[in-house]
Write a structure and sequence with these properties.
The chain is of the alpha+beta class and 552 residues long. It has 3 domains: 278 residues, DD-peptidase/beta-lactamase superfamily (Beta-lactamase), CATH 3.40.710; 89 residues, Beta Barrel (Lipocalin), CATH 2.40.128.50; 88 residues, Lipocalin (Beta Barrel), CATH 2.40.128. Helix content is 23%, strand content 30%. The protein is built from 14 helices and 29 strands. It has an 8-stranded antiparallel barrel. A hairpin with a 2-residue loop joins β9 and β10. α2 runs antiparallel to α12 and α3 crosses α7. The longest helix has 15 residues. The chain is elongated.
Length: 552
């Protein structure tokens, strides 16, 4: 594995550990250790860069760009960047706005006279922030099996899009759609009179000296091109073919790490578009219903441990990439890899940044809090989208779930802050009366307000101990009406409920009442006049199901 040195001098290392005014220290040694632990063992090859205040802190090249030829990854290695392409398309559109050639409020139908009527109700801005409602072509049922490897043209893709219904009325909601940026690419071409590739080369790549960035195609021989891979049952395998004309302005670029750094520095310096336009692109959009979404124009917006983040992932056949900036901390990180669908990439990058900034995510609860104090936060909470989260107290710990869904333990950080176990999601109760909390999941934080406060004992589950005779009363086969059999059995001292091979532990907490340890579900047993258990009622979410006991 080839590693480019990242410590140039002892004095420079010390400089990295001194924060600017109002900023946290970034521990590059910790970051490098985590890169080697979380990223480098997972992929065939890749490239990573971390910078702060425009200065490179860490730059690593590892693994291979071609496993068959065993060629090493280095600073010249080219990677497909997938949806990171969208920021280049968005900036291209904003350059046309700057030149007064188009307006963000222009109707998309203006540029496609033969398009269906509904196309004319969509604006350029709605394409940029994914509030257009246009069907995502890569979500069509036959995308993987037929379309992506076909010889279809962009005109063919547009025809497919026009035949599909909208997800929703334009502007009213958010749905990430590659189709939006395919349409934007064609607008760039129609207005400029150039191909998409020519426009980017003339307006961005050439002026910035990005000499190793290309609009990808399979025919052109490019030195230092990385081969893409996916994980199979027996190891890495070559990626599946995709006609690179189809990702187009939504995901068609190929570049090396150095060029991406050049791009980032030029953007931040105001050398591509004015700050006023770039700030619009990096500001969360709002739907016509007044709901803020986690997307601007070419970038997603979120948070890491309370710090605003500007980011985007890129997934395409054989490759995964991710870039993120924390503006207040002036920290930037980008990762290119030649492994397809590496979904843990954003999580791992977020872990590295939080740890290096000295505010790590919890892996276990280190702050103690009395069980009685946890009771104040029990209840149902709902956000502006009418999504509900339920908080329960189970065996001395708080758990969060969708009503009727899987439970996740909340780890207490102190000062009314909790983190969901084995995740990067956190919640912060806004006051001690449990009226609301802020839910942060690396995206835009959401506010949840209390909507239903049941009597506290309804959602407090304390295990009770049954003797053997008591346990035997509940064991057996139960038959849900018009549904499957439900078998209750005892294994190694624990009681389980099973439907087929799906087996979940159930725990007694009151007479004839059990809670499911992993799910928000209650089993309430009922008896006959002789006090024999003759059936149960499963209460899960808003529904109840009755299951008489089969005593045969």
């Amino acid at each position: 594995m080839k590693t480019k040195p990242f410590y140039l001098a002892f004095g420079l290392v010390l400089q990295f550990l001194v924060p600017a005014l109002g900023q946290q220290t970034f521990n590059v040694i910790k970051a490098d250790s985590l890169v080697q632990e979380l990223i480098t063992p997972e992929v065939p090859g890749g490239a990573i860069l971390i910078a702060k205040n425009g200065e490179v802190l860490l730059e690593r090249y590892f693994g291979s760009t071609n496993l068959e030829q065993k060629s090493k990854t280095d600073e010249l290695s080219l990677f497909r960047i997938g949806s990171l392409t969208k920021q280049f398309t968005a900036v291209g559109i904003l350059k046309l706005v700057q030149e007064h050639k188009i307006r963000l409020e222009d109707s998309v139908g203006k540029f496609f006279p033969n398009s269906p009527g509904w196309f004319h109700s969509i604006t350029i801005k709605q394409l940029l922030n994914h509030t257009s409602g246009i069907k995502n072509v890569t979500e069509l049922p036959n995308w993987k099996s037929e379309i992506e490897s076909s010889k279809l043209s962009i005109e063919d893709i547009l025809s497919l899009i026009w035949k599909e219904d909208l997800y929703f009325t334009p502007g009213t909601d958010f749905h990430y759609s590659n189709s939006n940026y395919i349409v934007l690419g064609r607008i760039l071409e129609n207005v400029s009179g150039l191909t998409y590739s020519q426009f980017l080369s003339n307006q961005i790549f050439g002026p910035l000296g990005m000499n190793h960035t290309y609009y990808d195609d399979q025919q052109t021989v490019l030195p230092f091109r990385s081969e893409g891979y996916s994980k199979g049952t027996s190891g890495y395998q070559n990626d599946t073919f995709i006609n690179m004309e189809l990702p187009f302005a939504a995901g068609g670029l190929l570049m090396n790490l150095q060029d991406f750094r050049t791009w980032k520095n030029a953007l931040d310096s105001g050398n591509v578009i004015p700050d006023s336009l770039l700030n619009q692109a990096k500001t969360p959009a709002t739907t016509s219903k007044g709901i803020e979404i986690g997307y601007g124009m070419g970038w997603s917006i979120g948070e890491i441990k309370g710090q605003r983040s500007i980011k985007h992932s890129g997934y395409i056949n054989g490759f995964s990439s991710f870039e993120i900036s924390l503006p207040y901390q002036s920290v930037f990180m980008v990762v290119f890899t030649n492994l397809e669908n590496w979904w843990n990439l954003e999580k791992n990058v977020s872990l590295i940044i939080a740890e290096a900034l000295g505010d790590p995510f919890l892996t276990s609860s280190s702050t103690q809090i009395a069980t009685k104090d946890l009771e104040q936060w029990i209840g149902d909470y709902r956000d502006i989208n009418q999504e509900t989260r339920r908080i329960l107290l189970q065996e001395g710990h708080l758990y969060i779930c969708y009503p009727g869904g899987s439970k996740t333990r909340l780890l207490y950080e102190g000062n009314r802050n909790f983190q969901l176990e084995n995740s990067l999601v956190s919640i912060e109760f806004n006051n001690s009366s449990s009226e609301s909390f802020t839910y942060s999941d690396l995206g835009i934080p959401r506010q949840f307000k209390a909507v239903n406060q049941l009597p506290k004992d309804e959602w407090i589950y304390k295990r009770v101990i049954l003797n053997e005779d008591q346990t035997q009363e509940y064991l057996g086969v139960y038959q849900f009406e018009n549904g499957p059999q439900f078998i209750i059995e005892q294994l190694a001292g624990k009681i389980y409920g099973a439907v087929g091979k799906d087996k979940k532990e159930i725990v007694p907490f009151n007479k004839d009442h059990f809670f499911a340890k992993e799910l928000d579900a209650i089993l309430r047993f009922y008896r006959d006049e002789n006090q024999q258990v003759i059936g149960l009622i499963k209460i899960q979410g808003d529904g109840e199901m009755k299951a008489p006991k089969n005593n045969k």
